């Protein structure tokens, strides 16, 4: 096991601080974009409030736009199936992938 000394912690901190200018410009120069995100409605309203706050914080920090869709659980399944069938899907979809895998298997839509 390595012993942490004050000198090794300071050395690591200086290295991290020195690397910061090389990381920041790439993020700042990234082009803003819009992404569509689908989530199932939470069981309690606080979940949805927290998600909306996290999205708003991300949008403010990144300059990107998130088109957030929070759908009640039961209708979300039909929405996902319709999207997969039409080929117009969101950029991010939070769901149980096992359900989608089964639907694709029954429709013989898997490619070997």
Please outline the helices and strands:
Layout: H1 6-29, E1 34-40, H2 45-62, E2 65-71, H3 73-86, E3 92-93, H4 97-106
Parallel strand pairs: 1-2, 1-3
Descriptive report:
The chain is of the alpha/beta class. Helices cover 59% and strands 14% of the residues. It has a domain at 34-106. The chain has helices at residues 6-29, 45-62, 73-86, 97-106; strands at residues 34-40, 65-71, 92-93. The protein has a three-stranded parallel sheet. α2 links the parallel β1 and β2 (65-71). It starts with 5 loop residues before the first helix and ends in a 6-residue tail after the last helix. Residues 22-26 have low confidence and may be disordered.
Describe the structure concisely:
The protein is an alpha/beta fold and 112 residues long. The chain is built from four helices and three strands. It has a domain at 34-106.
Characteristic key phrases:
alpha/beta; 4 helices; 112 residues
């Amino acid at each position: 096991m390595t012993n942490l000394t004050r000198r090794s912690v300071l050395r690591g901190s200086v290295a991290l601080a020195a690397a910061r200018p090389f990381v920041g410009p790439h993020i700042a120069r990234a082009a803003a974009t819009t992404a569509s995100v689908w989530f199932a409605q939470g069981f309690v309203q606080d979940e949805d409030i927290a998600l909306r706050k996290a999205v708003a914080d991300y949008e403010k920090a990144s300059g990107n736009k998130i088109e957030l869709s929070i759908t009640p659980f039961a209708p979300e399944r039909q929405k996902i199936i319709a999207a997969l069938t039409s080929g117009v899907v969101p950029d991010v979809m939070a769901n149980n992938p096992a359900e989608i895998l089964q639907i694709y298997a029954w429709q013989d839509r898997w490619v070997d």
